[in-house]
Write a structure and sequence with these properties.
- The chain has helices at residues 4-11, 15-36, 41-48, 52-55, 57-80, 82-102, 106-123, 126-134, 140-168, 173-176, 179-192, 206-229, 234-256, 272-299, 305-311, 313-330, 335-355, 362-388, 396-432, 438-459, 461-478.
- The protein is mainly α.
- Helix 17 (335-355) packs antiparallel against helix 21 and helix 19 (396-432) packs antiparallel against helix 20.
Length: 479
């Protein structure tokens, strides 16, 4: 397997961009997969006769499994090297995608999404590692900016592409849509990624993986089944109590393992816990609204999958534009100012959508969704950099993994709770007012889901205050 030095000798200075293009294609494929299916959810609901509190597993399973994949990534890179890890993960991902496209059973479909999520968690972190390996320190910002623009544009086109595929072919086509980019990334990885491993004696925390997987799955399953089963169901009650307990055991175990998946020592530093919870809320907002919006436009506004996809394009473009600008501003403005702006703009976006009805102009709907994406784009860079700035230099790699973990866990919980709220409040309104019809019942469900999500962002001002207090304390200690 060639080393980075050998690859530079073979390809010259252009190797930097060849390697970056490789990992960008891989990440773009994963981002497309995570978002393109959302616009197909109503069609899948119809085919398998599912409720919102069931079909959300297509997104929730992917995000929860991706969390596990991200935690295992460091071990895989150390044990097998970048090339083997990337290629094996991509091959399994392609096989799972094909199986998903032909699946005749919803349980198999959810299992496929979970496998895709684990592989996405293994593939996406390659980008940062590769860029840091092939670019000198004074060129990494430029490389990250170009890479980030390419990846952020993925969610902008995914809903439109998915909508066209659903309306012209079938929801099954969304599983095949990413295969061309996956195959190209696989070919490029075989030529441009280094193959050397570094720490073959690095032990993987298998017990930690099992504890996290079982605890998180039990919690998400219990929350999803609460409305249908009720607290009188002993299995659900066991999962509802046992899930958080098992995750608590996982956190305690991480203190003891010499190579923890999730290093809890970062919470010893003042303010980091605040940054962790803000990142969770941000993840819930990013993934929860990405899941809800295509459903809202189809089930409440009566749009086709194609129209629902195209109405989300301006929001994706707005986020792609604001993201690099936000990174630039975060070096010049206090992070708390930018995060506060995002925490206030996001509820405004959701409350405007809550006030909308079937007669609301499409232009206003596009604007309000784009406003929410601007809010999230303002928050992301300062949440990441502000949280890591609270840590000493030697703890920054561990802190980065914990912040990513928070965002993914928040995303899984956000999708889970959003879908549950839509189903619960829709059913309640339907039973109370059966003469009103399903569209109005759906509108009530989505309106209440928007309100609850908006409340989370308002509540996040409290952990932000703790994060800011930790930053002031650190500045005092270093001055």
């Amino acid at each position: 397997m060639p080393t980075i030095e050998q690859l530079f000798e073979r390809h010259g200075p252009r190797y930097r961009w060849l390697a970056t293009a490789t990992v960008m294609l891989g990440t773009l494929s994963m981002v497309l997969t995570s978002t393109i299916i959302n616009v197909a959810v109503p069609a899948i609901m119809d085919e398998f006769q599912l409720g919102q509190d069931q079909v959300h597993w297509l997104a929730t399973a992917f995000l929860a499994a991706m969390t596990v994949g991200m935690l295992v990534n460091a071990w895989c890179l150390a044990r097998f090297g970048s090339r083997r890890t990337f290629i094996c993960a991509m091959v399994i991902f392609i096989m799972a995608s094909v199986l998903g496209g032909f699946s005749q059973n919803f349980a198999v479909l959810v299992a496929v999404r979970a496998v895709q999520g684990v592989m996405a968690g293994l593939i996406q972190p390659h980008a940062l590692v590769t860029i840091f390996q092939v670019f000198p320190w004074n060129k990494r910002g430029q490389a990250m900016g170009i890479y980030g623009m390419g990846v952020v544009l993925g969610p902008a086109v995914a809903p439109a592409l998915g909508g066209i595929l659903v309306d012209t072919l079938s929801w099954r086509a969304v599983f095949f849509a990413v295969l061309p980019s996956c195959l190209l990334a696989l070919f490029m990885a075989s030529r441009f990624l280094p193959g050397t491993a570094h720490a073959r004696n690095h032990r993987l925390d298998w017990l930690g993986i099992i504890l996290l997987g079982v605890g998180l799955t039990a919690l998400l399953w219990a929350l999803a089944g609460l409305a249908r089963r009720g607290l009188q169901d002993p299995v659900l009650l066991t999962a509802l109590v046992g899930g958080p307990l098992i995750m608590g055991v996982f956190a305690a175990w991480q203190f003891r393992h010499p190579y923890p998946l999730f290093d809890p020592r970062v919470f010893r530093y003042p303010g980091f816990a605040g940054g962790f919870f803000v990142a969770m809320v941000m993840g819930a907002g990013v993934f929860g609204t990405t899941y809800l919006m295509p459903l809202y436009f189809q089930q409440v506004q009566g749009m086709t999958a194609t129209d629902a996809g195209f109405i989300l394009i301006p929001a994706g473009i707005a986020m792609a534009i604001i993201f690099p600008l936000s990174g630039h501003l975060s070096d010049r403005l206090p992070g708390a100012v930018m995060i506060t702006s995002g925490l206030l703009l996001m509820p405004a976006s959701l409350l405007f959508l809550r006030a909308a009805d079937i007669g609301t102009s499409m232009v206003w709907l596009m604007f309000w969704v784009a406003l929410g994406r601007v809010a999230l784009g303002l928050m992301m860079p300062p949440v990441n950099t502000g949280s890591l700035a609270l840590l000493p230099a030697e703890m920054i790699p561990q802190g980065s993994g914990v912040v990513n973990f928070a965002r993914q866990i928040g995303g899984a919980l956000g999708v889970n709770l959003s879908a549950i709220c839509v189903q619960f409040f829709s059913d309640r309104h339907w039973h109370a007012h059966p003469e009103a019809g399903h569209p109005l019942a759906f509108e009530v469900g989505f309106d209440d889901a928007f309100l609850i999500t908006a409340s989370l962002f308002i509540l996040a001002l409290w952990p932000l205050a703790r994060m800011s207090r930790g930053q002031r304390l650190k500045r005092t200690e270093t001055s």
